[in-house]
Design a protein that fits this description.
- This protein has 221 residues and is α+β, with helices and mostly antiparallel strands.
- It contains 4 helices and 10 strands.
- Strands 4-3-2-1-7-6-5-8 form an 8-stranded antiparallel beta sheet, with helices on one face. The protein has a two-stranded antiparallel sheet with strand order 9-10.
Length: 221
């Protein structure tokens, strides 16, 4: 992929809100030394600078096709960004606290477009369930950070699978109605060509309308 350095530098330092920012210790590619760098996450691009006042990034990491893992390293609160492939580089980073490390791991794990596609797919399923059932779905409990086993824990962009031994029929309460066929188009064109922001807005409008209708029907005697 061809990247224009001037455009990247502008995007890295523009006034738009960032997804995450802060100091991290970055391990050198050929040396074991760690260097303190200022990191800025925007979308699926992780920029790093010499310091917080720098106006030009030293480098950028494109967060596609990667996993974020906790690792054992000389620095405390270390984690790694790994890419598939025998020649792919692994970036070893370290935060300054446990809370900062957890925040970075979550943010980096959710930065790729693959993760956003999964979120859109789940929103579609929730919207379909609301249309079929006439009510909003129960809120999903947030996922906690996994325990560290043998010094390594792995985050991925895949949604959690259902617990083993759990089936739809074994859940308490009535069976939900079958889901209608998934929608293949949106108001302005095919689903695959729409941006995440457009999908969020379109489905948000429908969810609000369905919820208002459900509340209105519930209030009637």
């Amino acid at each position: 992929m061809k990247l224009n350095e001037r455009s990247l530098a502008f995007y890295a330092t523009c006034d738009a809100p960032v997804d995450n920012a802060g100091f991290l210790y970055k391990k050198g590619g050929r040396h074991a030394a760690y260097h303190r760098r200022w990191f800025v996450l925007r979308g699926n691009m992780l920029f790093y600078f010499e310091d917080a006042a720098s106006r030009e990034p030293v480098g950028v990491i494109i967060l596609e096709g990667c996993t974020v893992e906790l690792v054992e390293a000389a620095e405390e609160f270390a984690f790694a960004v790994r890419f598939a492939g025998s020649r792919a580089r692994t970036y070893v980073l370290a935060a300054e606290s446990q809370a900062a490390m957890e925040g970075w791991v979550k943010a980096l794990s959710r930065a790729s477009f693959d993760y956003l596609r999964l979120v859109v797919r789940e929103l579609e399923q929730q919207l379909a369930a609301m249309r079929a059932g006439g009510g909003p779905p129960a809120p999903r409990r947030p996922r906690a950070l996994p325990a560290k086993e043998n010094g390594c824990a792995v985050w991925s962009t895949e949604l959690p699978a259902a617990p083993i031994g759990t089936a739809t029929g074994a859940r308490p309460g009535p069976e939900p109605p079958p889901l209608p066929p998934r929608r293949r188009s949106v108001p302005n064109g095919p689903l695959d060509s729409a941006s995440f922001a457009q999908l969020h807005e379109w489905y948000g409008q429908e969810v609000r309308a369905l919820r208002s209708q459900w509340l209105s029907n519930r209030a009637q005697p």
